[in-house]
Fold these 2 entries.
Entry 1:
Amino acid sequence: MLIDSHAHIQLNQFNKDRDAVIERAHEAGVTTILIIGFDLETSLGAVELADNHENLFATVGMHPHDAKKLTPDVLNTFRELLNHPKVIALGEIGLDYYRNLSPPDIQKDAFEKQLDIAEEFEMPIIVHNRDAYMDILPILESRQGQIQGVLHCFTGDVELMQRSVEIGFHIGIGGIVTYPNAKEMQVVASKVPSDRLLIETDCPWLAPQFRRGKRNEPSYVRAVAEKIAELRNTSIETIGEITSNNFRSLFATD
Ligand code: NI
């Protein structure tokens, strides 16, 4: 049993074969898929899809790239969507200083506003980070005990992983761990505490090595689980079990 904790199958890239993609995930043992919104349109798309499929769940949120689009109206829509039974987290939200598509101050403001909502609704968060740990971790530390979530597509070193775990966060490991040159990532994946590990695809992006450069999809989360099992000297069944348990306890989907 495997859970893809981060997928974007509401996007156009899946318009032609979305049902087949969901079916392939089932056949690969992927029992649950969390569909992640990153702006208003993709959040609405995630909720609609989750609404129509038993084993799909959704998140809503404004990505740092589009932080300037987080108007009061959009915030209100997110609040309404958070009451939907299939919406189980806020995200992806965070900071991105690599592409800097919104100015850092506006990114921080949008992040804080959405953290306030997450606290108010007692919802976990999906955190997007790129080159911004120096700002993200202090913000999360300042709310330690108030907020839980996952640092998705984690690419930091062991020290940052340990700091993130100490403040109560889970670590999402994706396809990058399967790349031969991702040595540091592999060390991190071998050391994440068992009760904080999650697996993800971030599809359609970041396909694992055997499909690198092609469109990614939830069934490929199996390759991520296999690689982590190898790194931790355990079986894929064990990785499936611990990551699925972690998912259900973090997102309260039982
Ligand atoms: Ni994503």
Note: Strands lie at 2-7, 30-35, 56-60, 87-96, 125-130, 149-151, 169-173, 197-199.
Entry 2:
Amino acid sequence: MRNLLPLLNSPHSGGRSALTCRYRCGDACFQDVPNTSDNEYAGDVIAGALSRRSMMRAAAVVTVAAAAGTSALAGPAAPSAEAAESAATPQAGPFGRTDGARGLRFAPVAPNTTDAVTVPAGYAQNVVIRWGEPILRGAPAFDPDKQSAKAQAGQFGYNNDFLSLLPLPGEHGRQVLVANHEYTDEILMFKGYDPAKPTREQVETAWAAHGLSVVVVQEERKSGKLTPVTRHHLNRRLHTTSEFRLTGPAAGSDLLKTSADPTGTKVLGTLNNCAGGTTPWGTTLHGEENFNQYFANGSSATDKRYGISTGATERKWELFDKRFDVKQEPNEPHRQGWVVELDPYDPDSTPRKHTALGRFKHEAAQPRLTADGRPVVYMGDDERFDYFYKFVSSKRMKKGTSRAAREHNLTLLDEGTLYVAKITGDSPAAEIDGTGKLPNDGEFDGSGQWIPLATGDVSHVPGMTAEEVYVFTRLAGDKVGATKMDRPEDVEPSPRTGRVYVALTNNTDRGKPGKAGADEANPRNLNKHGQVLELAEHWDDPASDGFAWRLFLVAGDPEDPATYFAGFPKDKVSPISCPDNVAFDPHGNLWLSTDGNQLGSHDGLFGVATRGERRGELKQFLTVPKGAETCGPIIQDRRVLVAVQHPGEIDGASVEKPASVWPDGPGKLVRPSVVAVYRKDGRDIGV
Ligand code: FEO
Ligand code: CA
Ligand code: CA
Ligand code: CA
């Protein structure tokens, strides 16, 4: 018997500290689940939710749209997962190579609570960049005693989450690193911070610590070590007062107009950028996740469905800018909760918020291409009982890097169809008993349907206009009977097989009185460890409206009978809890990072083969310091990059009483940072 680490006894969902809940999600776990719909009957919510203007228009249901929706539902039967795999195997997909994953050959890191980044034997690491390091010309070195909004606006932001590395042709050994900065932990940033009375300087520093960073990084010869190139002309910061442009079918809608922006197209700031994606045309996508927590005094039914508080906010930004006060600016929250697209190669570009991809708590957005070159973007709405979406563009990507091609490609996500998933199991409901016990056919599996919500200006949802579908997408999902999932986080299509992997991180409310019970895709009640769903669409046609699915992992301690590792022997895998981010290595192995481990270990990064005889052989690659979450994994041939988010975020911790000494040791401020891990012998990762 392996020695199990003591189970945490945290009342917080996913084992998080109260500090995490307060600063990251605005205590979402303690609030009512926003999805109270029964999915067949959403009349009250819609009626109360939509504006007076929309109510007047509600009678004018777009019959053409409804008809289109109906016909789209009658698509061809979905392929089985195996059929989709064999169809995928012999042919080159849009991403090229099709040879199988080699499996992973490193000695797994044991679960642990070491206050460090722990990597396998034979591997080394370096801190690439820390919160507060200057990246723009003129920005000062980090000084915790003199931190200011002005300094922060030229420095790497706080709480790095999603990471992307893009090539930089012509500059040898350099790449462009793009990072999300999801949120701020004021109590760990400012000495003597008083949550009841934040100062303007503290608030404006937090504004500047949110958002995105672009920073060129340089490889060290003969190792995987990376260091930032400060003052590179591509380096950039975007934060809470930077300008963004709303594009796509809802841009300019009355629902998006404010007193500062009567056009409904110009937004200041991007908030709570969690995970994201990298497009085949060389841009990055960034999910705006728990944006609700920054807005005070919400009241309408739409606010309720998005979890906007009726009172003050934790950070009290509403006292410093009226746009965070819903009473004064009722439409301002409608301008957050989108997918942002950034062109990191054009430092003067205004990033876009793509309304065609819908508004919800976007965790991430990862595209793949159809055989005819149209992007398909998969997206999770990270909330208990919320939905899983995809967008299919009607426009084809232009190849090349000409100005005309780049301008065209920046419009790809403005036209197309937004869908939500309805997922059905193939086993009798009575066999899904909520314990995680496999049904008699030996697998949690079944089929699914993509239900169209809107195409351009045409709504497919009776009673909602297209603009309403885009701005109140959760309500549209309620109306069409989308499947209530266990917190869909990152989603990633395999560049080798086209199969799509969805991290469902946990849902401790599943099966509670009055809440949805277990179903085949979400098979455990009080689900604290999560699962990973594998979805197969037609390889040539990810724009199709039917799919096959099965659970790839049912997470937890392998000795817990309610776990499943794609059928791989459970005495040969690492324990995993709360999968969050998903990435692929160049060989086609799947990598998963975790947030909120409930097995007593720190969070970490894991690799697993998805094909062949080692399918399901999950191995832990690293663990992160105390209080931290593992984010943003990138697996290159010779380097793994992770974002260590919120280290030291433990109840009772503060600048004066740190809970972690990472990354710089005792007496130094704990700082979220990006870490590179590489082999000491300079060879490829994991092989
Ligand atoms: Fe920001 Fe859903 O993690
Ligand atoms: Ca089944
Ligand atoms: Ca996440
Ligand atoms: Ca990902």
Note: The longest helix spans residues 63-73.
